[in-house]
């Protein structure tokens, strides 16, 4: 079994991004700039946004965190997004999900200019991704593809089973793995809570992407010998044993599954760190106008 080491790969790619950010600063007189909007005080969201901001600083990006209380109206939020769309000093805009119930995430997602949509959630980017055109790819699936690429894993012809069909992870992951590219060219089965015989489906997989949100959901009896395991899950549990006060678990029973796997991502230290890389690469590409030239 080989560990797919998110720390090692992300640090290496971050060095490349930092070099390109420095070049961008020299030729443009400013840094690539990411704006993250955070509504409310969700613990997970606070941690993710703080980490995104910290990573931006590490690679030499400017980052701005705009914070609102839970009671902000949808109109106020959209007004701010439209302002940022017009601001030439802003390259990428992300709105951290989940949003309070009175705000429709679809409306917010579509309000972001697709040329600044570095989360890759806008329907324009989603459609372009499906057609293999230049676009911003959602950060988590993008990070996973970069990880597979880094380890030179040839996925052509593999049967990939994606567990979970969310708009941000499972669905785009299934599209990317099926595209005519490397990594890609897989035969993909996209599964979810209504899938019949889920265990049998997963057992057929050469490559498993687990994005469910349930601790240790994928157990050793569901996994074929030699399968590649990508564990997206981040499940927090209160713990007195860690400094932060909580411990993270993946969607895969790492201890028992790892002995059957050919490659496996740990949690923490796997996909989460690569997700940040996906976001940084999208932001840099937005600044350099590599995806949309107008
Ligand atoms: P969602 O809750 O949006 O989606 C979960 C998916 O899992 C749904 O499609 C759901 O099916 C499916 N599912 C739930 N229960 C079952 C079941 N018993 N059998 C089969 N399928 C099931 O989650 P996300 O995609 O946003 O996130 C998934 C996990 O990944 C979470 O732990 C999240 O914290 C983590 N995450 C990690 C990131 C990272 O950077 N590492 C980034 C984003 C998320 P249905 O559609 O039918 O309801």
From TrEMBL:
Q: What does this protein do?
A: Catalyzes the oxidation of 5,10-methylenetetrahydrofolate to 5,10-methenyltetrahydrofolate and then the hydrolysis of 5,10-methenyltetrahydrofolate to 10-formyltetrahydrofolate.
Query: Self-association or partners: how does it assemble?
Result: Homodimer.
- Identify its protein family: Belongs to the tetrahydrofolate dehydrogenase/cyclohydrolase family.
Question: What's a Pfam family this protein contains?
Answer: THF_DHG_CYH
The pathway noted for it is:
One-carbon metabolism; tetrahydrofolate interconversion
Q: Where does NADP(+) bind?
A: 164-166, 234
What protein name does the entry list?
Answer: Bifunctional protein FolD
The reactions it catalyses are:
(6R)-5,10-methenyltetrahydrofolate + H2O = (6R)-10-formyltetrahydrofolate + H(+); (6R)-5,10-methylene-5,6,7,8-tetrahydrofolate + NADP(+) = (6R)-5,10-methenyltetrahydrofolate + NADPH
Q: Which Gene3D superfamilies match?
A: Leucine Dehydrogenase, chain A, domain 1, NAD(P)-binding Rossmann-like Domain
Q: What is its EC number?
A: 1.5.1.5, 3.5.4.9
Q: From which lineage does this chain's organism come? A: Bacteria, Pseudomonadati, Bacteroidota, Sphingobacteriia, Sphingobacteriales
Alphabetically list the UniProt keywords: Amino-acid biosynthesis, Histidine biosynthesis, Hydrolase, Methionine biosynthesis, Multifunctional enzyme, NADP, One-carbon metabolism, Oxidoreductase, Purine biosynthesis
Where does the record place the Tetrahydrofolate dehydrogenase/cyclohydrolase NAD(P)-binding domain? 138-290
């Amino acid at each position: 079994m080989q560990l797919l080491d998110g720390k090692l790969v992300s640090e290496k790619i971050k060095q490349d991004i930092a070099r390109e950010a420095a070049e961008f600063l020299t030729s443009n007189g400013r840094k690539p700039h990411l704006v993250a909007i955070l509504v409310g005080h969700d613990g997970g969201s606070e941690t993710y946004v703080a980490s995104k901001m910290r990573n931006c600083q590490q690679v030499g990006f400017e980052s701005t965190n705009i914070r609102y209380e839970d009671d902000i109206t949808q109109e106020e939020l959209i007004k701010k997004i439209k302002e940022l769309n017009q601001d030439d000093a802003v390259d990428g805009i992300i709105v951290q999900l989940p949003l309070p119930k009175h705000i429709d995430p679809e409306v917010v997602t579509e309000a972001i200019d697709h040329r600044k949509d570095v989360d890759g959630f806008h329907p324009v980017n989603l459609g372009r991704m499906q057609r293999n055109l230049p676009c911003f790819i959602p950060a988590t699936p993008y990070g996973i593809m970069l990880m597979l690429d880094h380890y030179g894993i040839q996925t052509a012809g593999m049967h990939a089973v994606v567990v979970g069909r969310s708009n941000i992870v499972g669905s785009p992951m299934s599209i990317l793995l099926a595209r005519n590219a490397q990594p890609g060219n897989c035969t993909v089965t996209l599964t979810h809570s209504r899938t019949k015989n889920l265990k049998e489906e997963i057992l057929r997989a050469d490559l498993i992407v687990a994005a469910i949100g349930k601790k240790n959901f994928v157990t050793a009896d569901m996994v074929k010998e030699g399968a590649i395991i990508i564990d997206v899950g981040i499940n927090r549990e209160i713990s007195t044993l860690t400094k932060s006060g909580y411990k993270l678990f993946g969607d895969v029973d790492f201890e028992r599954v790892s002995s059957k796997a050919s490659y496996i991502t740990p949690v923490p230290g796997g996909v989460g760190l690569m997700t940040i890389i996906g976001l940084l690469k999208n932001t840099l590409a937005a600044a350099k106008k590599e995806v949309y030239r107008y």
